[in-house]
Target: 8-oxo-dGTP diphosphatase
Amino acid sequence: MKAIQVAIGVAVNGNAEVLVALRAPEQHQGGLWEFPGGKVEPGEDVESALAREFLEEVGLRVLQSELLYEISHDYGDRRVALTVFLITSFEGEPRPKEGNPIEWVTLEQLKALAMPAANRPIVEAVLERLGLERVVE
Ligand SMILES: Nc1nc2c([nH]c(=O)n2[C@@H]2O[C@H](COP(=O)(O)OP(=O)(O)OP(=O)(O)O)[C@@H](O)[C@H]2O)c(=O)[nH]1
Ligand SMILES: [Mg+2]
Model:
């Protein structure tokens, strides 16, 4: 099975909070919290996909981002290859443009969120990058 290429972003605000969205029940891995993002389209590079998905899903214009982490995960029903960016500068106020609730959460709150399995090492990388204790020792 070919992996689906996905670009996702961890936007950080001035209070050291990160932006998360709730996946709709009918979506793959529905009912779990995610970092906004989505599938890279044919012919599109992964940074462009990140910028497009952020505008489409939460209405933010990405001004500055850096590569944070890459992970492939097999969910059984599909394989995904996630490229994760830390978004250090953006423009606009986040709005749930596709109807999924969105929230700024502290890193402590992030640790406790129910997210898809592929996100556990991503959260570790976020905590490490932003300077907090790891979740698992
Ligand atoms: N956006 C997002 N997708 C994630 C995360 N973690 C994770 O495993 N995924 C998986 O990545 C895949 C693609 O993400 P997506 O469903 O957001 O894609 P999309 O926005 O293009 O959705 P669409 O197909 O409805 O247009 C899904 O299978 C999803 O389960 C995450 O933190 N954020
Ligand atoms: Mg999406």
Summary: The chain has a mean pLDDT of 94. DSSP finds three helices and seven strands in the chain.
